[in-house]
Amino acid sequence: MRYEALCLATALLAVPMADTASAQVAKAAQKEAKKVSMVDKAIGKYTKVTGVSGSLNSVGSDTLNNLMTLWAESYQKIYPNVKIQIEGKGSSTAPPALIEGTSQLGPMSRQMKSKEEDKFEKAFGYKPTKIPVAIDALAVFVHKDNPIEKLTLQQVDAMFSKGRKGGLAKAITNWGGAGLSGQWASKPIRLYGRNSASGTYSYFKKQALFKGDYLNTVKEQPGSSAVVSSIASDPFAIGYSGIGYKTSGVKTVPLAKMAGERYYSTDPKDVYSGKYPLARFLYIYVNKAPGKDLDPLTQQYLRFILSREGQTIVEKDGYLPLTKRIQVQSLKKLGL
Questions:
Q1: CATH number at residue 244
Q2: Residue 43 neighbours by CB under 8 Å, 6+ apart
Q3: d(CA 29, CA 26)
Q4: Which of 87, 90, 171, 178 could be a cystine partner for 197, CB 3.0 to 4.6 Å?
């Protein structure tokens, strides 16, 4: 997957101050105020319309659960009579709910598998519509005190998988095997991940495990928040989750695809350029018949998500907003 390059600029206002605690606080506040938003200025604001009411149901991704909730809360401030129910148990729950008609929105942290699309097409005679709504840097997290500075996907694979399809001859079971020395060398690596209902589980398996199988020793967690929380409380832990779930108790590890290649971080410049190896889109799937409009409630909700206000929420939740080009493509898919 390729992303447009985004030039990020930051401007800091230099004001002479005494080097006191209050001055440092003031400087920090000033810097925060000057932080440049990544939301594309060419993306327009949402315009309220009439005739929007009813109930929306969303079933799918846990990774997108917080975002769906934040979007819903903001949307309901615009349309107080709209009710939105959100269930985030994993991306694999989205396709059946769309097929059965129990949801209008199918958030997914991965693309639908061919067999999922085929079932949908068999039921309706056309394929589901896939709408990119945000960009994620699927992160490899370790405890904040872990001194590891970088890993290759081959090393990650040798930690998490049974068959090591990435090519390393031996499994990596302690932190010495990952390159750490001293008291860390003999410490065991404890693995945390998602369950098989998760789109993040599937994506990580495909990209980081080279389509290999997970070790039975991976401690599967019910949600992204639980993965990060577990890592934050275990000094020898490593796991994976969407970047939006990062907390102060963990840190991300820069990654390279293979040994000898350059390492890239979850910084926006590396993600937008497509160089970070686990960059991905986050999607909402909908049931849109060719040549027909979505119902006004679903259509306007997606318009809001793709607006400047919706993409600002993406940024505040720790993910990366869409570029104007991708936003226009998404609107076109919706006939807008």
A1: 3.40.190.10
A2: 306, 307, 308, 311, 321, 322, 324, 327
A3: 5
A4: 90
Closest CA to 64 of 157, 116, 132: 132
Condensed to tens digits (0 to 9), the pLDDT of residues 290-318 reads: 999 999 999 999 999 999 999 999 999 99
Q: Is residue 5 part of a domain?
A: no
If asked whether residues 75 and 119 sit together in one domain, one would say yes
The structure tokens listed for 4 are 């447009």
Q: pLDDT tens, 141-152?
A: 999 999 999 999
CA torsion, ordered 326, 329, 333, 335, to nearest 10 deg: 120
Is the residue at 25 inside a domain?
no
Same domain assignment for residues 313 and 240: no
User: How many domains are contained in the chain?
Assistant: 2
At 131, which helix (H) or strand (E)? strand 129-137
Instruction: Tell whether 172 and 80 lie within a shared domain.
Output: no
